[in-house]
């Protein structure tokens, strides 16, 4: 009820309206690149893979931690509140990681965030009381929500504005696949072993994979020159 009316209030930035297309493309990264070249570039593929593994890392714990808490003897209502704590912490994570990305660079902060996320989800395997679950939920919620906006920043720094929808959409699609993969694997693991501990270990491995993949990301040559001059 609120989203559609709010969307009607979205306007183009005044600077773009005043400057027109020439102003948009004057300092564009990779301004001559076509969409086909962009989606075939190692940079785009790396971001897709990183986002896939990133989302696969936290989606399993997101969907299964409530059930895990119940198996630890925590009442259902209290167990459900763990996810609420994650969501609340995530609001501050988006702001905190955004500020850090502006200060220290989006890729650097995202790499650190992915590493922290891997160990954060692993910590769930070592808690069994509601206080411990809340503590880990604050950490994990802050981190996984905070990492997500940084992908868009990296994309904007490396790809032309005119194809933001395609590049961000493709990266988000990979993330959606990761979000659907994590819970499925978590359920299969629980059915196979009768415990959630292996799922958290698997999520930790996926998180390390996401971090290592993003570590291999290299900006386009023009962007590297700009960063060196800066």
Features:
single chain; about 230 residues; mainly alpha; Growth Hormone, Chain: A; globular
Summarize it.
The radius of gyration is 20 Å and the shape is globular.
Give the overall silhouette: globular
Helix content: over 70%
Termini Cα gap: 45 Å
**For the report, how would you describe the main beta sheet?**
none
Strand content: under 5%
Low-confidence stretches: none
Question: Structural class, judged by helices and strands?
Answer: mainly alpha
Assign the CATH class. Answer: Mainly Alpha
Average pLDDT taken over every residue: 90
Radius of gyration: 20 Å
Counted by DSSP, the helix tally is 10
**What's the domain count?**
1
CATH architecture: Up-down Bundle
**CATH fold name:** Growth Hormone, Chain: A
Number of strands: 0
Succession of helices and strands: HHHHHHHHHH
What layout of secondary structure does this protein have?
Elements: H1 3-7, H2 14-25, H3 35-40, H4 42-71, H5 76-104, H6 106-123, H7 130-158, H8 164-193, H9 197-215, H10 221-229
Descriptive report:
The chain is mainly α and 230 residues long. The chain has a single domain (47-216), classed as Up-down Bundle (Growth Hormone, Chain: A), CATH 1.20.1250.20. Helix content is 81%, strand content 0%. It contains ten helices and no strands. Helix 4 runs parallel beside helix 6, helix 5 (76-104) runs parallel beside helix 7 and helix 7 packs antiparallel against helix 8 (164-193). The radius of gyration is 20 Å and the shape is globular.
């Amino acid at each position: 009820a609120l989203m559609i009316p709010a969307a009607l209030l979205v306007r183009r930035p005044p600077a773009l309206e005043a400057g027109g297309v020439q102003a948009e493309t004057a300092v564009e990264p990779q301004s001559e690149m076509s969409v086909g070249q962009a989606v075939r570039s190692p940079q785009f593929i790396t971001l897709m893979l990183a986002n896939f593994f990133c989302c696969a890392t936290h989606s399993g714990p997101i969907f299964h931690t409530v059930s895990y808490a119940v198996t630890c003897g925590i009442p259902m209502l209290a167990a459900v509140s763990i996810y609420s704590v994650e969501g609340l912490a995530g609001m501050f994570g988006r702001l905190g990681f955004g500020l850090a990305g502006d200060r220290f660079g989006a890729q650097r902060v995202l790499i650190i965030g992915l590493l922290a996320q891997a160990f954060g989800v692993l910590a769930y395997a070592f808690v069994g009381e509601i206080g411990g679950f809340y503590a880990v939920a604050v950490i994990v919620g802050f981190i996984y929500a905070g990492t997500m906006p940084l992908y868009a920043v990296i994309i904007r720094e490396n790809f032309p504005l005119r194809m933001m929808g395609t590049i961000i959409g493709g990266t988000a699609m990979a993330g959606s696949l990761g979000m659907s993969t994590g819970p499925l694997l978590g359920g299969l693991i629980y059915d196979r072993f009768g415990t959630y501990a292996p799922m958290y270990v698997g999520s930790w491995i996926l998180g390390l994979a996401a971090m290592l993949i993003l570590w291999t990301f290299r900006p386009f040559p023009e962007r590297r020159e700009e960063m060196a001059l800066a």
